[in-house]
Amino acid sequence: MEKGGGSPALSGSYPQKNAEILSSQYGINLFLAGLLLTFAWAVHAVGISKSHLLSYLITLMLIQLLWMLWYLCRSCTQRRLIRDKDTHAGARWLKCGITLFAVITLILDSFKIGYYIDFSNCLSPTEGIFPVTHAVHTILQVYFLWCHAKDIIQSFKTLERFGVIHSVFTNLLLWTNGVLAESKHQLNEHKERLITLGFGNVTIVLDDHAPQCNCTTTTLCSIFSQGIYYLYPFNIEYHILASTMLYVLWKNIGRKVEHHQQHKTPFKFHGITVGMIFGLIVLTSTIAIVVVYLIQIGGSKIKSELALTMFYLHAIFVLAFMCTAGIVALLIYRLEDRSLDNSKNPARKLDAELLVGTAAGSWLLSWGSILAIICAQAHPKYTWYNLPYSALVIIEKYIQNLFIIESIHREQEKVNDNIKTLRIVTISRGNTLSLSSSYKEIYNGRDAGDSGEMPCLFKGSISGRENDGGGAKEAASQENSSVIPSASDFSFHSRNSVTNNKRRILKNIAAFLFLCNLSLWIPPAFGCRPEYDNGLEEIVFGFEPWIIVVNLAMPFSIFYRMHSAASLFEVNCKT
């Protein structure tokens, strides 16, 4: 009898927990199979060709397309039903970002289609089918995320778990495929640059899986082949963003949420002029450094050394300023006494885990560079700049992670509502100026004493009191006595002014760090990678081991910068 009383809740939770475990294991096995297939193609395993890998990816995308169509059709038939939404998931700025990356991904697909047409005589049909399928997959997935990223699924939960987790790992495999293709292209250029720096004893067979036939139109083939690799960074960011949004959707399946009003926090340029100016200076200078670096590196030994020195000096100054800004922001937080929001939030938890997890990629590269500098017997002059650069990369990410994670966990101030309530209670006791002052402080940011005229609402209340009392002197004496501000009014105005100044500083810091992270995303994403080019690490660790480390860690380092920029944008809106 006692068992029957508690069984309904338990019987409902166990199947869903099992479905979560089974779906996660399904997704991991799906990913591992694709990962091994990708690796086998990269190392020319016997019996494995690129067509096998592309066929596997096409199959996964088609399955996801069928699931998304089924979900969209079912949602249309039930559109009148009120559904729970996760207000923290699928922010509008995040949707706009993934849409931008998706548009550039579609351009990449069109380049691949043109490349296939030019080399159609010697390429597998799967290389033509893949970009077409991928383009359709991209369009439908972006539409799906715009419409349903906030959904909290409460029906067909077991089936939906498998569909969403399938989508998550399909995007991760597409991300891996893009990373591999881009890394192979970078590796070929890297070998040529090392030779110009004097590292001629490095031997490796160059291999980019080039077609074994002539192109029908040489000019177009060159445009398509070169353009593809410049567009890959956007394709990589698109798939990793899509997988994170889908993962939050998967974690929200069957979740019970508290219904409360979520205040919208739109982005405003007002009050962040200083941070934007300094950030734009960093962004502009970084673009110039990248252009010069790509032109100079590999030209000659002297030009390559100058390009590396220029890159390191610029990065050292930028990272030092970012560290200083992060420390100032953390000190401001230490001066404030505000509680943290520890409520369950899958999107916020994932943001924090991604920040720390992806930062480990650049930390690995930095510690490798530091160890190489310590252990190397010969030190070219430019390699000494690598030491402070690597140390600052570690410190800057450590400070920035603390700032972002604390910012997204801090509760927004609710002092204004309490003050308005206090002032309304005060006016009921006859203090008219207190309410006037509080409203002007709250909405105009200054004391009411600065204005020579009171709001019409309070004029009406005073004149009404004069008419009812019948005594002009008594009303005048009450009005004059109310003109004198109380000590609490001055105290609140002072506290409010200090709070506004702190908030303004934090918003400028967040805006500055946002643009700095976008700036530091550009160099590695577009081929400016000193970890490849300075040559010292290859001497200490060996060419192939270090290249493997760089190829594994660099994608996480690139994603860290874009994810940090997105998180800082949210911090700026929230502050």
Automatic annotation (TrEMBL):
Top-rank lineage group of the source organism: Eukaryota
Protein name, as recorded: OTOP1 protein
Listed GO biological process terms: inner ear morphogenesis
Localization in the cell: Cell membrane
GO molecular function annotations of the record: proton channel activity
Record flagged with keyword Cell membrane: yes
Entry membrane topology: Multi-pass membrane protein
UniProtKB keywords: Cell membrane, Hydrogen ion transport, Ion channel, Ion transport, Membrane, Transmembrane, Transmembrane helix, Transport
Family designation: Belongs to the otopetrin family.
Example of a GO cellular component annotation carried by this entry: plasma membrane
Transmembrane segments annotated in the record for this chain: 26-47, 53-72, 93-117, 129-146, 229-250, 271-295, 311-333, 354-379, 505-527, 539-560
